Amino acid sequence: MARAVTTRQKTINSLAAWAVGLLIFFPILWIFVMSFKAEGDAIKTPLEVLAAPWTLENYGVVQERSNYSRHFANSVILAFGSTLLGLLVAVPAAWAMAFVPSKRTKDILLWMLSTKMLPAVGVLYPIYLLFIRLGLLDSRAGLVVVLMLINLPIIVWMLYTYFREIPGEILEAARMDGATLHEEILYVLTPMAIPGMASTLLLNVILAWNEAFWTLNLTAAKAAPLTAFIASYSSPEGLFYAKLSAASTMAIAPILIMGWFSQKQLVRGLTFGAVK
Amino acid sequence: MATQHSRSAARLMMAPAVVLLLGWMLVPLTMTLYFSFKKYLPMRGDSLANGLDWVGFANYARFVTSSSFWPSVYATLVIVGGVLVITVILGIFLALLLDQPMWGQGVVRILVIAPFFVMPTVSGLVWKNMFMDPVNGFFAHVWRSVGAEPIEWLSQASLPSLILIVSWQWLPFATLILLTAFQSLDQEQLEAAEMDGARWPQRFVFIVLPHLSRAITVVLLIQTIFLLSIFAEIFVTTQGSFGTKTLTYLIYQRVLESQNVGLGSAGGVYAIILANIVAIFLMRIVGKNLDA
């Protein structure tokens, strides 16, 4: 029920909310501004930085010096590869849990979620050792599998909640009309499941893109995604604010845009349905 | 509806996910457990091929009696506790604010949520260099402009600095969940209370807060699990110096930097037990909701 609000009240709300919003967003805005400034200007006082001329050179330098595009490609491959692989494994599992539930479904689901809570550092050495033995250290293939496994519980969980919203009566109706199981899946379920699968894909790509434990510890130069590439700026030589800003802008921009579309999925995916 | 046939098909469909997760959980866990009872220093020639010496609970005892253990527990508690308090309290106010009618609500929401999507290495490095650097950082410029001496954030106030960075990352998550909870609040109940003469603080304490209690619990539990294992933010800022060595970071250093695998694995087992204690409470709430 909408409550009547005076214009004055609304103006105060708006001003307060915008002030807080801009304050929280400010570091990101500042990265963005700095990325278009010359290195010499970037260390000046904030007002001088704003007044300094704008330039695109940092973006070129970052690409040239550190082969940005390869790390970007690694991030894309790792994020999408692990999520698609995860979907491949999770779709049948979630489908079975949602449409053929048994007494143990709930326990299996909870157990799957609980594996997500295993602290990564507790199994760091075993994974590291296995990676060395299997020749997977600094390989994209190895990381795709690890990232898939750490996000698999969330993927299964999200798909399960989406699938469960599909009314079972529709399947029965299709069956009455003589649809075979194959047709049922292809023409009835798939179209209804696609939005949920897309949302799941979106959130998990974001999570995999930003994952910064395994990507830092299991890669070197070759398979390093953007998380690890940016970390190489922690021991810089000379002035680097503008370059760091340009590299950061390129690393976070695609995911910020995707993130804005995934607000709702965030609540669903990361609270495991405990908040509605 | 479910026949014997569809039951076995369902089992088959779940098998890959179950087997993969079971393997992902059991294999490394067993190895960690095994290493934790062994003397395993790969740099000094210990190797699996030559066999490792059994040392019983020596690693477990050494881990908790080492001089870095209690400081790491302290750093962990301060960081996790600090971030939880800040994100929950600010999150409630922010969610309350965002729930009011205003112009450009959608855009404000986007601004507030954005930090969650910034990768940890970027936020760590940007805060460290561009904001907290005592010479050229944003804060240093601001401090100097009012005639104050700039603070060396990450060395003089290392724990508060890290709490600030991590809170900035997690505030959107808390806000978003609390906002979701706010939106399911029964407005009529609030209005009834208002008509009965309840003032705003009373309405907040007796109606809003109880309604939010479950959302707050969930935020606390989920964030605790993720915050216990923050790594990249410390890795790119202080590398564990200036009292910022958390339990996670200490284990990481034992295992990969000093390569004392036995000792680190014992620490890992402690960390796993700790995380599981928190997880049990979370899973209870999730399980209850699954039934509903």
Description:
The complex is a heterodimer of chains A (276) and B (292). With 276 residues, chain A is mainly α. Chain A contains 14 helices and no strands. In chain A, helix 5 (68-99) runs parallel beside helix 8, helix 5 (68-99) crosses helix 10 (181-210) and helix 8 (140-164) packs across helix 10. Chain A is globular, with a radius of gyration of 23 Å. Chain B has 292 residues and is mainly alpha-helical. Chain B has 13 helices and two strands, in the order H-E-E-H-H-H-H-H-H-H-H-H-H-H-H. In chain B, helix 2 crosses helix 13 and helix 3 (69-98) packs parallel to helix 8 (158-183). Chain B starts with a helix and ends with a helix. Chains A and B meet through helix 1, helix 5, helix 6, helix 7 and helix 8 of A and helix 1, helix 3, helix 4, helix 5 and helix 6 of B.
**How many DSSP H or I helices of chain A?**
14
- Low-pLDDT windows of residues of chain B: none
CATH topology call of the domain at 68-234 in chain A: MetI-like fold
The global form of chain A is globular
CATH topology of the domain at 67-259 in chain B: MetI-like fold
Radius of gyration of chain A: 23 Å
What keyword list fits this structure?
heterodimer; A: 276 residues; mainly alpha; 74% helix; B: 292 residues; two-stranded antiparallel sheet
Provide a concise account of the structure shown.
By secondary structure, chain A is an all-alpha fold. Chain A contains 14 helices and no strands.
